[in-house]
Specification:
With 273 residues, this protein is α+β, with helices and mostly antiparallel strands. The chain contains nine helices and eleven strands. The relative contact order is 0.15. It binds heme C.
């Protein structure tokens, strides 16, 4: 890998990773790999700093203990001298350092994922959404594509992107989009009682099943709402397939916790029990 490919790759990986950082409930192998920085050194089918996941799966195929064995290696690393991947020309480093953020349970999830799924390339294009629907407890259900969003007040905001490399400095990108608040005001809450305003929630769903929740008063009447942005451009360019065409960020959250790419729908629900 030449230097500029590496730099570009690190950039996109860092972008992909910030948004799941801090997430506690991740159980999916791919997400765990993102959060724990595995893609800094590994990729699906070719060697990087570490061996390709496909090579690892091949080496351990048919070994009865493979899941437990790999889980232990993932958590503890491969020791000071390593297992020889570099000597075979299949890695650029002689050993893997311990992955201190990985619990033994998550190590098992990651090991299973590597042996089964990880070598399949992710086809981002299949997740791209071109419009979002606004449904549920609203007076005016909506379908909005990027052109429709452009007709609302458009904002440019700074978004800080944190990477997972130890000494990596956060970078700042400029996003262009609209406030979630403006979309919700257009749809308007359908209320049966004045109290419904205080017990209504907003579920933002992505095409890959990822979900993020806000409350109605939080978005409409608190400073969080000023940072809840549906965006469609990053640094002057339409969002690429890895997050497009519409993504959502919550700039006022610590660490950008509520972020989702590939936004598909916004559902408003009022708690009734
Ligand atoms: C700093 C770079 C780096 C990071 C980060 C990293 N790895 Fe590795 N990994 C390596 C290298 C290098 C090897 C080959 C080590 C050897 O030859 O012993 C390796 C080997 C492995 C192996 C094979 C071990 C074996 O038994 O042969 C697995 C499985 C693995 N990594 C999974 C992961 C997972 C999952 C993560 C994230 C939690 C991760 N790695 C993070 C560099 C890294």
């Amino acid at each position: 890998m030449n230097e500029s490919t590496l730099t570009n790759w690190l950039k996109t990986t860092a972008l992909a990773m910030i948004f799941v950082s801090g997430q506690v409930l991740a159980v999916d192998g791919f997400e765990l790999a993102q959060t724990n920085g595995c893609f800094i050194c590994h990729q699906a089918t070719s060697k990087r700093v570490g061996p390709a996941f496909s090579d690892i799966a091949k080496k351990y195929a048919g070994e009865a203990n493979a899941v437990a064995l790999l889980a232990a290696h993932i958590v503890k690393g491969t020791g000071p001298t390593g297992f020889g991947w570099q000597a075979e020309g299949r890695a650029e480093l002689p050993f893997m350092p311990p992955n201190t953020g990985v619990t033994p349970e998550n190590g098992l999830v990651l090991a299973k994922w590597i042996l089964t799924e990880a070598s399949k390339p992710t086809d981002n294009a299949k997740f791209v959404t071109s419009k979002i629907s606004v449904t549920g407890q609203v007076k005016q259900p909506l379908e909005l594509n990027v052109d429709d969003l452009q007709k609302l007040p458009v904002l440019q905001m700074k978004m800080v992107v944190r990477g997972h490399l130890p000494n990596e400095k956060p970078t700042t990108v400029i996003i262009k989009g609209v406030m979630l608040r403006d979309v919700l005001e257009k749809a308007a809450l359908q209320t049966a009682s004045p109290f419904d305003v205080k017990k209504s929630v907003i579920i933002v769903s992505a095409s890959d099943g990822y979900r993020v929740v806000f409350s109605w008063p939080e978005v409409l009447f608190s400073p969080i709402g000023e940072g809840a942005i549906l965006f469609f451009e990053r640094d002057g360019k339409p969002l690429a397939d890895d997050e497009g065409k519409i993504a959502l960020t919550s700039l006022r959250d610590n660490g950008g916790i509520r972020f989702t790419k590939w936004v598909k729908s916004i559902e408003v629900r009022t708690i009734t029990d």
